[in-house]
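Take the subject:
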Amino acid sequence: MPVAAAPPSARAERPGRGRILVVEDEQKVAAAVREGLQSEGYDVTVETTGETAFFRINTERFELILLDLGLPGQDGLDILRVMREAGVATPVLVLTARDTVGDRVQGLNSGADDYLVKPFAFAELLARIQAVLRRGRTAEPQRLAIGDLEIEAAARTVTRGGKAVDLTVKEFELLVYLTRHARHVVSRDTLVREVWRETAASTTLNNIIDVHVSRLRRKIDREGSVKLIHTVRGVGFVVREEEP
């Protein structure tokens, strides 16, 4: 199914607008969408199956997900329902050939933020994306809490069990990011981009991340307290209350 590409005037280099995950098994559609969105300044990742997409959704941060419903192996609606049940609030724009009113209602009731029927023009897709992103831009909470850990982001203070915890600037940024995504695994690559503001991981940077996590764990997870900072081997880290 052809997708009209972005016009040449839109291909000039633009500042980064955020990360978009495209979940689409039709290679020509996925390639056209990726090319058009990259020309608009978006960082685009493409997955072609429900399983690989679901792993990405749970380990990386995206500003928007473009989700095809007719995926091999796992239906897009199932992915959407599980995402919402797990508390993943990333905006989702459904792309599908299912064009009945019932299909649209089902998609929206499953947690989609908008619905676009194939075939579509790239200009309409871009307008829908921008509209969804505008609706989704809400102020991040300044007070974060999980268990007896409390963070005042604006004041840059941290307490655990009512006792102040002294953190370095980078330790504080790391803790805030992990806590904002509490109960969801955050990959090393995500920390490289979102906390260290680097474009790619390296052995040295991975070692630096490990050192900061280790120091943070010593300060936050003191002896006798419920463990909050967990390592998911081979994937990344997650802040959650330890399973009983």
User: Anything to note?
Assistant: The chain has eight helices and twelve strands. The domain at 143-239 is CATH 1.10.10.10 (Arc Repressor Mutant, subunit A).
